């Protein structure tokens, strides 16, 4: 479905009824990384999964996509759909950074939180430097070198060698993001603030889900967030990497289902 949200046309999937769960994808991806959750969880909840600006079928704009801007887009999407009841927010990686910005701005709209393969800390100076190099690469060579460099880190070695269809699907998703989308995300992630001081103030049921083979965000980040968020639960999926919800959909969905049933139904 497409709808006018702030200054863009935004695409989103909307399936199921009841408690709304807003799924926010990471960089450089789109809502299709949530297909197993759209298919597998819409019997117990209303699954809303947008393409962030510049990704998939949502309109791109020039300039930085700050985490606040992306969170504002998500809040505005809820306004125009419209969804007034409290939601559960589920953010993957950069989607987790957006979720933390959303909490800072719109805490009263949230009933619960799911953070997956993400971190609260800001970029280190090395990471900032790498973002700038990636921005220049996109400007000079396009998005393909970024995709080729990043794809092997998104999935586990086992998935990479045994599931070529999933590898091809992830590549296609990464190709759906416009160059402005890559640059906007990279600038936004580079400049995002440290959200660690926010963690002890999160007072809603929170679930952290991580894969133990994630090369991009190590498990230590999960453990540190778990120790700082009071009402949090940590689930670790063995044999899964950064895109754990695609690699291990049954395990991921069971964990989310139990969290939803226990806390909200
Ligand atoms: C993502 O998956 O959203 C990104 O890899 C996160 C990041 O680069 O920090």
How would you describe this structure to a colleague?
- The chain has 265 residues and is an alpha/beta fold.
- Helix content is 46%, strand content 18%.
- It has 11 helices and 8 strands.
- Strands 1-2-4-3-5-6-7-8 form an 8-stranded mixed beta sheet, sandwiched between helices.
- Helix 2 crosses helix 3.
- The two termini are 27 Å apart.
- The model has no long low-confidence stretch (mean pLDDT 98).
- It binds D-malate.
- D-malate (MLT) binds next to loops.
Summarize the structure.
Helices cover 46% and strands 18% of the residues. The chain contains eleven helices and eight strands.
Q: Which term fits the overall shape?
A: globular
What summary fits the major beta sheet? Answer: 8 strands, mixed
The neighbouring-strand order within the major sheet is: 1-2-4-3-5-6-7-8
Please report the distance between the alpha carbons of the first and last residues: 27 Å
Question: Averaging pLDDT over every residue, what do you get?
Answer: 98
Whole-number radius of gyration?
A: 17 Å
Strand content: 15-25%
Q: Could you list the spans in which at least 5 consecutive residues all have pLDDT below 50? A: none
What is the count of helical runs? 11
Bound compounds, each kind once, are: D-malate
Helix-and-strand structural type? alpha/beta
Q: Give the topology string: H per helix, E per strand.
A: EEEHEHEHEHHHHHEHEHH
Report the strand count.
Answer: 8
In helices, the fraction of residues equals 40-55%
Q: In oligomeric terms, what are we looking at?
A: single chain
């Amino acid at each position: 479905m497409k709808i006018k949200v702030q200054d863009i046309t935004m695409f989103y999937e909307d399936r199921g009824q009841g408690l709304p769960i807003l799924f926010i994808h990471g960089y450089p991806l789109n809502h299709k990384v949530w297909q197993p959750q759209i298919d597998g969880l819409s019997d117990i909840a209303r699954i809303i999964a947008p393409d962030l600006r510049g990704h998939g079928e949502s309109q791109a704009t020039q300039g930085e996509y700050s985490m606040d801007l992306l969170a504002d887009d998500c809040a505005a999407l809820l306004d125009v759909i419209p969804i007034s009841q409290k939601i559960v927010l589920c953010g993957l990686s950069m989607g987790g950074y957006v979720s933390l910005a959303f909490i800072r701005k719109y805490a009263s709209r949230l009933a619960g939180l799911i953070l997956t393969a993400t971190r609260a800390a800001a970029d280190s100076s090395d990471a900032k430097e790498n973002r700038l190099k990636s921005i220049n690469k996109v400007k000079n060579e396009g998005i393909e070198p970024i995709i080729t460099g990043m794809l092997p880190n998104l999935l586990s070695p086992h998935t990479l060698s045994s599931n070529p269809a999933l590898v091809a699907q992830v590549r296609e998703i990464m190709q759906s993001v416009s160059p402005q989308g890559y640059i906007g995300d990279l600038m936004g992630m580079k400049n995002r603030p440290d959200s660690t001081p926010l963690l002890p103030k999160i007072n809603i049921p929170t679930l952290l889900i991580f894969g133990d083979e994630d090369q991009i965000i190590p498990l230590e980040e999960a453990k540190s967030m778990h120790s700082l968020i009071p009402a949090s639960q940590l689930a670790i999926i063995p044999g899964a990497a950064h895109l754990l919800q695609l690699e291990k959909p049954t395990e991921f969905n069971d964990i989310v289902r139990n969290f939803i049933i226990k806390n909200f139904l």
